[in-house]
From TrEMBL:
<dbReference type="InterPro" id="IPR023198">
    <property type="entry name" value="PGP-like_dom2"/>
</dbReference>
<protein>
    <submittedName>
        <fullName>Uncharacterized protein</fullName>
    </submittedName>
</protein>
<dbReference type="InterPro" id="IPR023214">
    <property type="entry name" value="HAD_sf"/>
</dbReference>
<dbReference type="InterPro" id="IPR036412">
    <property type="entry name" value="HAD-like_sf"/>
</dbReference>
Length: 160
């Protein structure tokens, strides 16, 4: 005699798929899910022991704010322009898009081709500054060494 889905309590469900009916037994699922339950709890409590780590490169691994401000100042110097020193302008230089900064904050060129040239040059200056970066922010190297070479070998990924 075939046991009904859901063991003694009748817990379970059936669904139909193109390749035939799928019968799901809740007791079976609970048993299967218990196997990974403790690992999931451990990873929730200690995420650095999980399967991998994703880092935001910006201001976590490298101080990209300083690099971005430096790029803006280099561009202004090349163009013979001034960068406002007030905190609002500095914040916009860091967090607003280059289009907005060039149009609304710095009030530089209006021609579209000239704006494209300035944005391209800004990107190149930022990239050059990033390549000259010799070491990560304080503590990052030690933390990565523990994560990668410690008791748990983890895959790491950086995003920007």
């Amino acid at each position: 005699m075939e046991e009904a889905i859901g063991a003694e309590y009748g817990e379970g469900f059936e669904t139909f798929r193109p390749d035939g009916p799928l019968k799901v037994d809740v007791d079976f699922l609970n048993d299967r899910l218990q196997e990974g339950f403790l690992k999931r709890i451990r990873y929730a409590m200690k995420p650095d022991e999980a399967y991998g780590l994703i880092f935001s490169f910006d201001n976590v691994v490298a101080d990209t704010r300083a690099l971005k401000l430096k790029a803006w100042k280099q561009l202004a110097s090349e163009e013979g322009k001034e960068i406002p020193e007030d905190s609002d302008a500095q914040r916009l230089l860091l967090y607003a898009g280059a289009d907005h900064v060039l149009h609304k904050v710095l009030l530089w060129e209006k021609a579209e081709s000239e704006l494209d040239r300035l944005k391209s040059r800004l990107s190149q200056l930022y990239y050059d500054n990033l390549l000259r970066l010799s070491e990560p922010m304080e503590g990052v190297e030690e933390w990565l060494d523990c994560s990668i070479y410690g008791s748990h070998t983890l895959r790491c990924c950086f995003k920007s």
